[in-house]
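Q: what sequence does this backbone want?
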């Protein structure tokens, strides 16, 4: 991974932060795209300050193509290449269909699905030119099995599956591989919102009987960015402790 240029959207917290840390630890140059830049960078790297020389932040709203393109262009100008894009930024705005507003539908689709389209579109010209690239999308188990109260979120994640497979077919001839990781439940802000009873019920249904640590998702992202996975494209890999079986 040494000196690979890696864009991680939503790389400032949760799963994205774990992904940024793992790549930076492996010597990659990580470019974090998020709307907010952490105030305390030492806290962001959990005191491992040597990682900071490998991590750069860009204030980007992935739902806005111009905002994405501007930062991608800056990176191409300064680094001359982009090796890996991780489309990880994601949000929820849960409600039952009966109560869901069109605005809540658009908000989630614009970030989770259009955001991945915007970032992929912004990087592929460079990747096609260099005849090399990896795009790794972060979906969700609910994109496969659905979830009441999350029609917008699950539709956005199911949409990412179609995006992944179509991009994989379009871009394979240029040696750009596109895969999707579908996490189950991961310990982050998103799952902190659940109460203890909800968490216990959730764990009951997971064959491995525990939720994932963000680093267990990051490990698989690194695998898809690594040379060891160079004959894999268009795949959806559930990293969910067996929940989707
Ligand atoms: P968090 O809520 O902890 O982090 C979400 C990240 O997305 C933040 O870094 C946030 O940064 C960024 N983000 C949100 N909106 C935008 C935007 N418009 N432009 C740029 N960045 C944005 O989520 P998780 O770490 O839990 O989730 C990461 C991914 O994993 C998501 O795609 C999620 O759907 C998926 N996932 C998570 C699961 C879980 O159990 N946690 C399970 C399955 C999938 P900022 O607000 O600063 O912009």
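A:
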């Amino acid at each position: 991974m040494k000196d690979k240029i890696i864009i991680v959207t939503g790389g400032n917290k949760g799963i994205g932060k774990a992904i940024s840390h793992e790549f930076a630890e492996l010597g990659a140059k990580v470019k974090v795209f998020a709307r907010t830049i952490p105030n305390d960078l030492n806290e962001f790297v959990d005191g491992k300050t040597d990682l900071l020389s490998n991590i750069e932040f860009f204030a980007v709203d992935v739902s806005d193509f111009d905002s994405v393109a501007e930062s991608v262009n800056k990176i191409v100008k300064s680094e001359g290449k982009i090796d890996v894009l991780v489309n990880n930024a994601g949000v929820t705005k849960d409600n039952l269909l009966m109560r869901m507003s069109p605005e809540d539908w658009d908000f989630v689709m614009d970030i989770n699905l259009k955001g991945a389209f915007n970032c992929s579109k912004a990087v592929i010209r460079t990747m096609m030119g260099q005849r090399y690239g990896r795009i790794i999308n972060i979906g969700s188990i609910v994109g496969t099995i659905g979830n009441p109260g999350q029609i917008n979120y699950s539709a956005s994640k199911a949409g990412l599956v179609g995006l992944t497979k179509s991009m994989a077919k379009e871009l394979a001839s240029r040696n750009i591989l596109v895969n999707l990781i579908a996490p189950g439940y991961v310990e982050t802000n998103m799952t902190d919102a659940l109460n203890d009873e909800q968490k216990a019920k959730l764990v009951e249904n997971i064959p491995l009987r525990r939720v994932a640590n963000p680093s267990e998702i990051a490990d698989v992202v690194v695998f898809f960015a690594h040379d060891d996975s160079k004959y894999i494209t268009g795949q959806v890999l559930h990293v969910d402790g067996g929940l989707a079986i």
